Each structure stands twice: as structure tokens, then as C-alpha cells.
Amino acid sequence: MKIVIRSAMQSYFRHYKILLLFIIGLLISTGLPAAPTYWLSDTPPSKEIAKTMRSSHDGLVQKSRRDGTVKRLWLREGEDPLTSSYVKESSAPLLLLDAKKTLQSVSFISEGYAETKFKMPDEGFYNLFMINSFVEDNTLYSITAKKETLNHSCREGHDDVKEKMPPNLYNDAPIDIIRERMSKERFHSHMTSGDLISYIILQNSKPLSGASITFVTQKGWKKTLKTDENGLVTFEMIRDYYPQWHEFKRRTRENFLVIVEYVKVQKGLLNGQSYDTIKYKATASGSYYPSTRDYQSYLYGLLIGLFALFVTFLSVYLYRRRRLKVYKEQRLD
Amino acid sequence: MIKKIREQINNGDLRRFRFWLQIFFFLLFVYGGYLSINLGQNIPTFACGFNSEGQGATCYLIPLQHQLARSPSSLFSMAGIAVLIGFSYFVLWFLVLNKGWCGYACPLGTIQDWITSLRSKMGIHYAKYSWEQFRHLKKIKYILLVLMIFIPMGIGAGFFSHDMTTPFCMICPGRTIIPMFTGDFSQLTIDFSSKTKMVMTTLGMLITGIFLAGAFFKKRFFCFFCPMSALHFMLSKLAFLKLKKDGSKCTKCGDCYTVCDMQIKEIADDVESKNILQDDCIMCFKCVSSCPEEGALKVEFLGQPVFEATVKGYIKRMEKENKNG
Amino acid sequence: MDSQKVESKQPFNLTHQAGEATRMLRSITDDFSDNPAAMNYFYDLYEKVYCEGMQLHEDKKIIGTMCVQVPDELIYAAGAVPVRLCNGFYTDDHNGADFMPAKSCSLVKATLGMLEAKSTLPFIDRIDDIVLPATCDQKRKSGAMITEMGYSVYDMEVPPVKESEEARIYWQRSVRKFAASLKTITGNKLNKTTLKIAMAQVAQAQKAYRKLYELRKVSPSVILGKDVFMVTNAYFFDKIENWTEAVNKLTKELEKRVEENFSAAQRRAPRLLFTGSPAIFPNLKLPMLIEESGGVIVGDETCSSNRMLYDMVSADEWHLDAMVDGIADNYLKPCTCPIFTKNDDRKRKLLQMAKEFSAEGVVYQAFSGCQVYSMEQASITKALNDEGIPVLFVESDYSPDDMGQLSTRIEAFIESLKAKRRRRKRK
Questions:
Q1: Fewest Cβ atoms closer than 10 Å to its Cβ: which of A74, A162, B140, C373?
Q2: Number of neighbours of residue B304 by Cβ within 10 angstroms
Q3: C6 lies in some domain
């Protein structure tokens, strides 16, 4: 199926042109035609939509009596979380791997933006895949966009957290980007600046080595690495949140983007069109928060605690000495 | 046969029994999580929930404050029934041991008892409140209980910032001290991310410092101010474990008052009441073990006497303590 | 064993007091059959001390005490021995009357008479320091008189009200001051170890006494009241370890008696409690009269006996300050001495004892001149009567002149108790 793109930027003709130039530039720089980067995001496109949603452990969700907890994801295009645009319409197929590890089919709805909604009745991780492929110029372009969302409510208790932590795998994904869990990570854990985030890239359940993986922070800082023989790559989350001291909000949720690119020389046929190379592109997004080191101070804490301890000891000591003088308390010790 | 067992219990060394039972509960609540023990989140004692690694159960005050922090519309609707359900689980746990949770199970109480025995070994004299001071200090725990209920509701209603989260937990020394036992020192920080957080964490550290020094000089210092104690006392009439007194046998010798950690004078002076439990009492039962009058004080479980003051038991314990103490 | 410094003194065994002691001792041993064998220790003790002038406590300093509020543990801890000076001899009472007002308490007169003449107790020459709690009027004023006799008197401040916190703190300070002064008096400073040992010693004695106390509850009674008075009076001056050992032997013998269902008195003897002004050897005429008339004294509530030994001390932490405060509390709060403002504790104690000892009646003795006991009498009697326990109020003193009148009254009382029992049985 062809992806029908009716970008909002059609009206902004100039921007379209710039975007085109940008893509051409990219093509020139890589030497090969490249596909646009699509990724799934849970950040609402407008403040009005955000207002109708409630915050939960992993981003905003919609809560209603009838449907329970509903996650809304939007399709975005671009390689920079700050400037990526929201796609207006899409009819690409979507697959949901829910917390019970069953696959369901969902689709995009268009309510001004290309959006998908799904209910999250169970505790655990939900993975949404958008998988599409098309042939152009003898090249098969395989696009995968993935979003992993956690559904958790403290009301459900914390009994099975350990069992539900490991990531759920979808073996038929052309490229599956799997974020390795950090040690002792639980439902309430957040990724923060300074954390080491590791990914394992799998292709048909086998580790993919030699793939190029680019990590993009909220403000557009990029780093590109290659996966090793185990398909593993590790990034250190940098800090790129520098507000004024009094405007610092420790719950600032920022997005990061992971883009995997891989080229395979293989001949094949898709819908009657032949191709001799396959270009894989897969994206995944996640969120991070400011590190606690930015706003929590051990030094002050310990100083204040020791101060209180010392003052109390001193006052008790002085009080006991004073009582000896005033009333001539008889001390036998 | 039962008589023999009763006699054995009545002659028993309460201090040693209490020492080991306290260690058991401490290990259960502070390290139980490592063995995947989870007794739920309605426990009537300070099994601190901030000790995420090792907690074997969670102190009820955390879920209580979280639940009360919902918006008034959801709190007073059918969803508010969750609060009542949680509360009834709490009551069920509480009914079993009454305030014995304080004297035997509370990890914070156990820590204070350890600090007290450290001081005793150093030969430093303990502090006592005068009766006047006592009367005023008693009221603090009720004030804290009221604040603990109304501030979260205020958060839900929008009067207070969400940064106050669980207001009592921010000032509770359990939050800072108990996680230290599993190697988690992160609660000792001052959080500068917002003014509210700064104030609350500063208060928390100040109170931790005061707690440690206070517990050093005064036996069970924090228990005078504990809102959990106030909550317990309101339910104590229903509980299964009771402390009873037979006033006609009491000679008012004051031995029970001498050993009482909480300086409760009613235990010695009140010869009329049958149920002698006071709001400060932690049910450590040191009074029962140091009473030389047969049957004057007794511990009852569901109406059956479990541990009574006996002359023989008293003499045995006093002789042992004189030798060892 | 021989007489004291000759000068103006007679040989000990020829004094009036020795004669009085001997006479009473004979009555005690001979007027009754089947005295427990273990009592011989006590009979011999009295004989040796009061009749032959045997010395005791030769290795230690002796501190004289008056009144039951003085904490013995502290004196033992300071390396001295407390000897209770409260005297029961008519001879000394007679001597004391020379310089005391006519309407005075016989006990105080006798004690002062003894201290003036330096007689009666063989080791009175070695007593220079006396601890005197300011309890009743007459004890309080005797302090000045005793000082003029040449003794060194330590006035211990006792609060007149014992319920308030101020009183408790006052008394604690008073005891602490006393504990500190013991250094000047004895030369030894108190420390944790000596106090612990002293507390253990006194606790052992109290433990032995408790066993005896519990055995007296048995019906039929295994020991007569006159013997128990002898035992507790011996605590005034005997060496504490010996006393404890002797009491333990006595209780062992009494336990055997219980097994044999032995009755020390007649099987139908009415069980009585004795309370009020203390019966001190040799002024045991009232208990003797009661038991000779067919009653048996199963329990007593007097400061020469039960009140002295009953309440045991607890301590939470073994530091000197904590221990001394604990001792202080224990000597004040349960004290049922009538010098305190309220009667409630004494009432409750008597009611509880009446229940536990299955007592049928109470004999309440007050010395003539004793205002406090006489004034408490009305409310105590009412409280006991309300529970159906008759009370016989007897006003007496040390002189032997009222024996006839007393024996009539006592016999009548005992008869009325027996009749009451018969009536109840018929119902």
C-alpha cells in the first residue's frame, strides 16, 4: 500500500520546498535515495488535546468510565523531536502487541491529525508497530515505527511488576528496536539525563549487527553508532534542559528518538515489482526527565540533619547543666 | 496443663522475648521484600514504602494520603469507596495486635529502642517530661493526624501544590532512616526543584536530626508525636489484644510507672478503670512484667488472659535483671 | 553478751527492760503449743539481744531510723546498717513520760526514753546518726529533742500529700539529698554496684516475707499472728541475710504444715486482721490477747510489719539516678501511713486483704495521743462495715493497766464473730 501523504506543509509551499531540498541534500549526502523518517509519538499536537488527557506513569492518557485507560499516539515525521511535524492523515496498517502478548490490528483515525487510539486494560507494556514497505527504483523500502508504552496504576498494586518488566518481542517485525531494561528497573522508574540507555536491534529474532543507529535528543542533538555483533548499542543520555533556575520543572518530559538504518543486498519481488536492495528504517521514541542530580542535594540534606542533631544534643546538655544550678539538683553519677 | 503453660509464660523474661520479636518484625518489614514477601499496603505500622527494595509491606499512611489527594469530586463519589475499603483492611490488621504494633512491630520503634539501649550502656541518664509538659505534648499527635488527613484533601481540591505529595511522609523520620538500612540514601537529599519541595525536604531532614537526638535522650521520643498512634487509639476499644487492670489489687507502688517508656501515670494512679490503655501506650507490657501484685495487670487476647503480673514472675525477672542489668 | 560500759549502768540482764522482754518472751513461747520449730531462731534472737545484751553489726556503722519511709536500700548501699528505733518497752515509755507531754503517743515516748537513757538496745552506744522522716507531729518534734540528747539527726522531708506530681518530685529530691548526705554520714559514696547489691539483698528479704504473707492466707492458718509479729519486728535490728535465711526456713516448715492440714489455732478461730498503731515487741499485748481469746490474726496492716516489707522496687535502667528515683517512688506512693491527707489507699488495701485472707473482722488499734490513726478510724470502719466486716476500735497504750478491760472487749468481739458465723451457716 502506498502511503498517502498529505502533509500540512502543502499550504506552506515554501517549507515544503525547503523540506524537499533537505531531503535531496540528504540523498546526495548518503548517495542513495532515502525515505522520510516517521515515528510514533505520545505527545499531543496541541494544548487543547493535552488538556483533555490525564497524566499517568508513562505520559498522558485518556481516562473514561466506558473505555478505561486509552492511549493516543500520533504519527510524526522528521528526525528532530522538536521540529517534527504531525502527519495529517495516514492509512498505514498498525499492529498492537498488548500486555498479554496478543497481537491485534488497529488503524489510524483522522481527527485532524493521523492518530490511533487503543485501550489498555492490563498492566504492563503495550507495543504499537507501524510497518510498511514499498518498492521504488529497484529498492525495497521497509519502514517500521514502534512505540512502547507502559500502563500502570498504583491502584492495581505492585505484585507482578517483576514478571511484567521484560520487553515483549514481536518476531515478525522487519527490525525490532528493543530497549534493554536498566538494572532494578520497575514500573515507577524513569529514564533521566545521565542514564545509559541500551538497545538491542533484532531482525527476525536475530541480533542485527552493523546497523547504523542514531540517537536524537529533544533539542536535536544526534549521535550515531553501529550495533555490535550482539545487536547491542549503548547511548549515554545527555542533558539538554537548561532553564532559568526558578523556571526549572523536574517533571519536564522530553522525547528522544532512535532511528535505525540498515541496507541489505537481496533480490526479491513485492507485488510484482522487483528489487535488488532492501533499505530498512525503523524508529522508536521514548521520554526522559531531568536527572535528580540537577535538583537534589545530599550535602544540604546532611548538613541540615546534622545541624538539627547537634542543636538538640547541645540544648539537652545545656538544659541538664542549668537544672543543676538553679534547683541544686543532686546528681549522684 | 494449661495452668503450667500459663505459669511458664507469666514467669517469662519479657525483655528478651520483646527483643527478639522486635528483630523479627524489623527484618520482616525492612528486608522482607528481598524474599518477595508482600503483606500489602494497609499495615498499621511504619513499614516504610520509600524502602522500595526491601519492604515486606507498606505503611498504610502512604496509600491513605495518596487516596485522599484525589479531587473532591472523585473522592466523594463512588470511587471514594476505595478509601473506605483500604481503611477497613487497615482496621482488620490493627484489631489483631491493638497497639502492640507499636511496641513490637514498628521498625521505627525498634530503632528507637536500639538507640535507647546504646544510651543506657553509655551510662547516660534518660530524660523525663514533667506532667505539665506531657499534657501539652500529647496533643501534637492529634494535630498531626488532622493535618495528615486534610492536607492531602487540600491537594486534591487544589489548595496545596501537588509537590506536597504525602505531607506526613515528607516529615516522617521513617522515610529518611528506614531506606538507609537497605543502602538507599537518596531520601537524605534536599529537593530544590520547587519551593514546596525545598520546604518539605528541609523539614524532613530537620525532624530526622531531632528524632535521632531526641530518641537518644528520651525513650520512644517519636511515639509521643506519632499520628499513627492517634489513629490507633481511636480504634483501640475494638481490638482483640487488651491491657486490663484490677484496681482493687493495686497498691499504687508505682513500679509500672517507673519502667514505662511513655511515662504514663494512669497505669499506676488509676484504680477505677478496667481497660487501662492510654493514647500514648505502646503496649510493650513492661508494666505488666514489673508489677509485683498478683493479677493487678494483665494482657488479654479476646478475653483470655495471656500474660499476667505474678509475684513469682516479678521476683524471677527482677533477680535476673539485677544480676545482668 | 556481757554488760555495757559500767559507769552508771546496770548489767544488761538486770535492767527493767530485760525483765519486761523476758516476761513477754515467756508468754509468747509458753502460752501456746506447737510453735513452729523455725521460730526458735527468733525467740533466741530476742533473748540474746534484749535479755542478754548481745551485740550485732559489729563490723558496720549503724544508722538509726524512725518510720518506715526511710529507704533501707540506700543505707545498705552506703555500707551501713539501718536499725529501726521504734520502741515497744513500757519501761522506756515510763522514762520518756518524764520529759514528754502527758497526752503523747507511747511509741514516741518510749523511743525518746530509750534514746535518752541509752538503754534497751545493746548497740545503742554505737548509734550516733539518726534519720528521722518528718511524718506525724510527734515524730517531727522529737527531732529537736533527740539532737539535744547528743545525737546527730538527719531530717528527711516527707510531703504531706502524696498524690500530686509536686509531692513526687519533692520526695525524689529529698531522697536524692539523703543519698548524697550518706557520704558525709558514713564516709562512703553510693555507686551503682553497691546499690544494686543492696537492692538485691532487700529484695531477697521481701521475697521471703511474701512467701510468708501468702502462706498466711491459707485456712486453717498455719501460723499465729504473734509469731509473725516477732518475725517482722526482728527485721528492725537483725542482720538481713540471717533474717532472710531464717524466714525461708520458717516458710518451708509452714509449707509442710499446709500439706499436713495443720491448724495453728482452733479450727473455728475467727480470722482477724490487725491494723493501726504498730505492735512492737514487747508490746504485743493486744495480739496476744486476741489469740489467747480464741481468734487468730491472719494478716496485719501496720508499719512495724506488713507496710515495711510488702512493696517491692522495680528499676528500668540501672543507673544510679534512675534507681534512686525508683526507690523513692516506691517508698512514697504505696505508703498507707495515715500521715498523708487521703485515706483511700489504706481503705483499698484493707478491703483487698480482707478478701484475700478471708478475714471476718478487723481489730484497729490506736495509741492514745495518736491523732492520725484515731481520725482515720471512722472512715476505715465505715468502708469495712459496708463490706460486712466488723471493726473493733481499741485505744490503748503501753501500760499494762488496761489488760482487763481490753480482754473483755476482745472476748466479746470474738464471740460476736463466732455467733455471726453460726448465723450465716444456718442460713
A1: A162
A2: 9
A3: no
Task: Find the domain containing C352 and state its range.
Answer: 12-426
Span A149-161, pLDDT tens digits: 999 987 777 777 8
Q: Tell which residue, C312, C374, C379, C314, has the closest CA to residue C345.
A: C379
- CB contacts, 8 Å: C176 with chain A: 329-330, 332
Q: How far, in whole angstroms, is CA C73 from its chain's centroid?
A: 17
**Bridge partners, residue B275, by sequence:** B244
Is the pLDDT at C245 greater than 90? The verdict is yes
CB-CB: which of A249, A250, A300 is closest to B190?
A300
Structural domains counted in chain C? 1
Q: Inspect the interface and report whether the beta carbons of A333 and C173 lie closer than 8 Å.
A: no
The pLDDT score that the predictor gives to residue A28 is: 52
CA distance A332 to chain C (A): 6
List Cβ neighbours of B72 (8 Å cut-off, separation of 6 or more). Answer: B153, B156, B157
Chain A hits for B217, CB-CB cut-off 8 Å, are 316
Number of residues assigned to chain A:
333
Give the SS3 label for residue A34: coil
Considering only the beta carbons, identify the residue of C165, C318, C348 that sits closest to B271: C348
pTM of the model: 0.82
pLDDT given at position C12: 74
Peptide bond into A36 cis (omega under 30): no
Q: How many helices (H) and strands (E) does chain A have?
A: 4, 20
- Interface contact flag, B311 C210, Cβ < 8 Å: yes
Q: Does position A14 have pLDDT exceeding 80, yes or no?
A: no
Residue C173's Cβ-side half-sphere holds a number of Cα atoms within 13 Å equal to 13
Which is it for the CA torsion B195, B198, B202, B204, positive or negative?
positive
C326 touches chain B (CB under 8 A): yes
Q: Determine whether the interchain pair B189/A305 forms a contact, defined as Cβ–Cβ distance below 8 Å.
A: no
Amino acid at B100: G
Place of cell 545487536: A231
- Which domains are assigned to chain B? 241-324 (3.30.70.20)
Q: Quick one: which of B64, B57, B59 has its CA closest to B83?
A: B64
Beta carbons of A290 and B173 less than 8 angstroms apart: no
Hey, what's the torsion of the CAs at C363, C366, C367, C373, to 10 degrees?
160
The pLDDT of residue A222: 92
How much is the pLDDT for C261? Answer: 87
CB atoms C176 and A333 under 8 Å: no
- pLDDT score of A4 more than 70: no
Q: Would you say residue C2 lies in a domain?
A: no
Assigned domain for C39 exists: yes
Interface probe, candidates C173, C195, C318, chain A, greatest A C-beta count within 10 A: C173
Rounded CA gap, C56 and B53, in Å?
A: 70
- Tens digits of residue pLDDT in A234-261: 999 999 889 888 888 888 899 999 999 9
Q: Which chains touch B (3 or more CB pairs under 8 A)?
A: A, C
**SS3 string of chain C?**
CCCCCCCCCCCHHHCHHHHHHHHHHHHHHHCCCCCCCCHHHHHHHHHHHHHCCCCCCCCCEEEEECCCCCCHHHHHHCCEEEEECCCCCHHHHHHHCCCCCCCCCHHHHHHHHHHHHCCCCCCHHHEEEEEEECCCHHHHHHHHHHHHCCCEEEEECCCCCCCCHHHHHHHHHHHHHHHHHHHHHHCCCCCHHHHHHHHHHHHHHHHHHHHHHHHCCCCCCCCCHHHHHHHHHHCCCCCHHHHHHHHHHHHHHHHHHHHCCCCCCCCCCCEEEEEECCCCCCCCHHHHHHHHCCCEEEEEECCCCHHHHCCCCCCCCCCHHHHHHHHHHHHHCCCCCCCCCCCHHHHHHHHHHHHHCCCCEEEEEEECCCHHHHHHHHHHHHHHHHCCCCEEEEEECCCHHHHHHHHHHHHHHHHHHHHHHHHHHHC
